[in-house]
Amino acid sequence: MAVTRCVCYRMTFAELRELARANDWTTVAQLSLATHCGMGCGGCRPYLQAMLDTGATCFAVRQGDQPPQPAAPEPWDL
Ligand code: FES
């Protein structure tokens, strides 16, 4: 199982990456103010930062305080 979305606001990282690119958002704050993603439970914030940093939209579940690592999506992750 991989992390591919903001569960609270039901948006995939792929959707959010496209919005970020189209609007020149470079920070999680910009993205959150516009979409609310990251402003619910906050669990997706490290993944949003990693998405902005790397362009990846699928991540392994992170361990402890380690930064999210990109992962290949399984069919059920899409
Ligand atoms: S998963 Fe994104 S705010 Fe909860």
Overall helicity:
25-40%
Unique bound compounds: FE2/S2 (inorganic) cluster
The arrangement of helices and strands along the chain is EEEHHHE
Separation, N- and C-terminal Cα atoms? 11 Å
Order of strands, main sheet, comes to 1-4
Report the strand count: 4
User: Which structural class do the helices and strands define?
Assistant: alpha+beta
| Largest β-sheet summary | 2 strands, antiparallel
Q: Please state the average pLDDT score.
A: 95
**Tally of helical runs:** 3
How would the global form be characterised?
globular
Gyration radius, rounded: 11 Å
Number of domains: 1
**What is the beta-strand fraction?**
5-15%
Key phrases:
single chain, 78 residues, alpha+beta, two-stranded antiparallel ribbon, two-stranded antiparallel sheet, 3 helices, 37% helix, 10% strand, binds FE2/S2 (inorganic) cluster
Walk me through what this model shows.
With 78 residues, this protein is α+β, with helices and mostly antiparallel strands. The chain has three helices and four strands; from the N terminus they run E-E-E-H-H-H-E. It has a two-stranded antiparallel ribbon. Strands 2-3 form a two-stranded antiparallel sheet. FE2/S2 (inorganic) cluster binds at residues 6-8, 37-44.
